[in-house]
Every structure is written in C-alpha cells, then in structure tokens.
C-alpha cells in the first residue's frame, strides 16, 4: 500500500519535471531551436491550434528559424501569434515562409529570461510539494483506517521525504542548466 503510494508520487513528480523541461524549451537562449515556437497557440479557423500542427519548423542556421505552413492562408495568423507572444521576435513573411531571426540576447533580456525560468522552477517545486502533501494525506488516512501501523506511517513519511528531496534536487539541476544556457553568449 505504501509502495503503491510512493510509486504514484514518483510518477506524478516525474510529470512535474517533464512539464518544467517543456516550459524551459519555450524560453529562448542565444541560439535558434524549433522548440521555441512549437507550442505557440495560433488562432486557426476559430480554434486555438499549436504551431507545430500547422507548419514545418526548422532551424537552418544557429540564429534563424523558418516556419513553412501547410496551409499558406494561415501565414497571417501565425505571424500575429508570434507578434503577440512574449518571445520578442519579429517575423519576416515572404508569402510562403516565415523567417524568425533570433538576435543575440542583451544582458537585460537575459536577466528577464532568468526571472521567467525561476518562476517556472518555483511552479515545478510547488507541484512536487503538492504531490508530497497529497500522498502524506493518503498515508495518514491509511493509518487512521488501520490499514498500516504507526511505524509503517513513519517509514512511509521518511521514504516520501527522500523521494521529494531527490526530485527537488533534479528541478534545481535542471534550472541551473537552463540558467547557464541563458547566460551563455
């Protein structure tokens, strides 16, 4: 019973780290990466749709992204979505293709991006702590219903704390890697 709860906690905490890595992919660094715009929501025929479902995104050069829509009539909507995003990029539209030139980051912009990264880090830590709280409540409920003993509850709490600490450390490592990427000139 405790093992199943801890396995559930691990699974949910891995999900928090996965979500953190996905959100970090949207924070730009000095080089072009298709992940920067893949998840961008575009208003396509009245429905919000991810850009990766509407176009082919490529990085032919380290400082350039190209977006080739499957439907050329969606160029305007894609351009509008890029301008409305917080990426700070200006799309160049030639009628068939959108080019996004990724300028080198200014020191000020780097600090802003680090703040955004820290916000995502804190959200991931909160998610992990919420999982810990939920599982702890489950363990207490098991003990209250006499499904586990008080000693098992105590050991379960210790094991849960170890798992939580391990995932918080992974989040911190992921954050320091991203911060290093952002600071890289």
Structure in words:
The protein has 185 residues and is an alpha+beta fold. It has two domains: 2-25 and 106-183, Topoisomerase I, Chain A, domain 4 (Orthogonal Bundle), CATH 1.10.132; 35-101, Gyrase A, domain 2, CATH 3.30.1360. Helices cover 59% and strands 15% of the residues. A four-stranded antiparallel β-sheet has the order 3-4-6-5, with helices on one face. A two-stranded antiparallel ribbon has the order 1-2. Strand 3 (55-61) and strand 4 (64-69) form a beta hairpin. The longest helix is centred in the C-terminal third of the chain and has 38 residues, at 107-144. It is elongated, with a radius of gyration of 22 Å. The model has no long low-confidence stretch (mean pLDDT 89).
Specify the helix fraction band. Answer: 55-70%
What assembly state would you assign to the polypeptide chains in this entry? single chain
In CATH terms, the superfamily of the largest domain is Ribosome-recycling factor
Q: In percent terms, what proportion of residues is strand? A: 15-25%
Q: Label the structural class.
A: alpha+beta
Strand line-up in the sheet with most strands? 3-4-6-5
User: What is the helix tally?
Assistant: 5
Contiguous low-pLDDT stretches (5 residues minimum) are: none
N-end to C-end Cα span: 50 Å
Please state the second-level CATH architecture of the largest domain: Orthogonal Bundle
Q: Which sequence of SSEs, written as H and E, runs from N to C?
A: HHEEEEHEEHH
Number of DSSP strand runs? 6
Q: What name does the CATH topology of the largest domain carry?
A: Topoisomerase I, Chain A, domain 4
């Amino acid at each position: 019973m405790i093992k199943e709860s801890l396995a559930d906690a691990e699974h949910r905490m891995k999900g928090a780290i996965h979500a953190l890595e996905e959100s970090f992919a949207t924070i730009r660094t000095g080089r072009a990466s298709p992940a920067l715009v893949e998840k961008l929501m575009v208003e396509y025929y009245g429905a919000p749709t991810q850009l990766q479902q509407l176009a082919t995104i490529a990085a032919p050069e380290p400082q350039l992204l190209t977006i080739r829509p499957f439907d050329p009539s969606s160029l305007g909507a894609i351009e509008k979505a890029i301008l409305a995003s917080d990426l700070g990029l200006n799309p160049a539209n030639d009628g068939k293709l959108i080019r996004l030139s990724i300028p080198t980051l200014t020191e000020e912009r780097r600090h802003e991006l680090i703040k955004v990264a820290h916000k995502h880090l804190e959200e991931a830590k909160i998610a992990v702590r919420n999982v810990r709280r939920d599982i702890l409540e489950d363990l207490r409920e098991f003990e209250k219903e006499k499904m586990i003993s008080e000693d098992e509850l105590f050991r379960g709490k210790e094991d849960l704390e170890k798992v939580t600490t391990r995932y918080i450390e992974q989040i911190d490592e992921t954050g320091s890697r991203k911060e290093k990427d952002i600071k890289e000139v």
